[in-house]
Amino acid sequence: APFGYREVPAAEKASLVRRVFDNVAARYDLMNDLMSLGVHRLWKDAMVDALAPRAGMSIVDVAGGTGDIAFRIHARTRGEARIAVCDINPTMLAVGQDRAIDRGILRGLALVAGDAEALPFADRTFDAYTIAFGLRNVTHIERALAEVRRVLKPGGRFLCLEFSKVTLPLLGRIYDTYSATMLPTLGGIVAGDRQSYRYLHESIRRHPPQEKLAAMMAEAGLARVTWRDMSGGIVALHGGWRI
Ligand code: SAM
């Protein structure tokens, strides 16, 4: 397989992830709606509800891609928060920039190319750090979590929205079948790219389940770590604080 997604050694994961998002960037938003039947919008709304952003806050959305989380934060704060969208992939950021221009919302928004494992921000910069459907794409999750703690101010909030482990047995079986067969098929038809959507399935399967991710967050020095399942654990919202 050209993508080698079966067993991806750490050294190759970054370039694989780069290729996947280069390939899907143009169709990324459409594919999210199709694959999740629009439900990703509700998951993202729930994350921003939990964040409850206020005017004057300084927030970084890491792996922010085409801007979905940042635009929601911007809308809720009426452009009165400072938001940095940081993503390792310039192609995804370029789509995000076009969308921001279309919506006329560049004020208060900075688009920054950078790696979650080595963020281009000073210590104690942000009141909040969000990451949606990003952490599973990072090569070394522990390094990314250490960066979370570093760039947050004391009292700062961390929220992570990510695919997780389905907790309902029947739903789990349906979902496994769906994601192993329908995702690559849809990816092939709509984006002309079956392989990238097989990577999606693999990356979800390999991502640490709820308890494990919570333990890793605590390990990285985040406090009061909690999570909440959504859609039966298809997605989980983890939260923690830098104190
Ligand atoms: N947050 C957006 C959303 O929810 O629609 C985009 C999520 S998309 C599935 C994953 C994003 O993670 C891609 O834009 C990809 O470029 C980015 N990414 C992957 N590895 C990264 C890393 N090490 N640092 C920063 N961003 C990364």
TrEMBL record:
It holds the Pfam family Ubie_methyltran. GO terms for biological process: aerobic respiration; menaquinone biosynthetic process; methylation. S-adenosyl-L-methionine binds at T66, D87, D115, A116. Pathway: Cofactor biosynthesis; ubiquinone biosynthesis; Quinol/quinone metabolism; menaquinone biosynthesis; menaquinol from 1,4-dihydroxy-2-naphthoate: step 2/2. InterPro entries: SAM-dependent_MTases_sf, UbiE/COQ5_MeTrFase, UbiE/COQ5_MeTrFase_CS. It comes from the Bacteria. Gene3D superfamilies: Vaccinia Virus protein VP39 (3.40.50.150). One of its GO terms (molecular function) is demethylmenaquinone methyltransferase activity. It is an enzyme of class 2 (transferase). Keywords: Menaquinone biosynthesis, Methyltransferase, S-adenosyl-L-methionine, Transferase, Ubiquinone biosynthesis. Belongs to the class I-like SAM-binding methyltransferase superfamily. MenG/UbiE family. This is Ubiquinone/menaquinone biosynthesis C-methyltransferase UbiE. It comes from Vineibacter terrae.
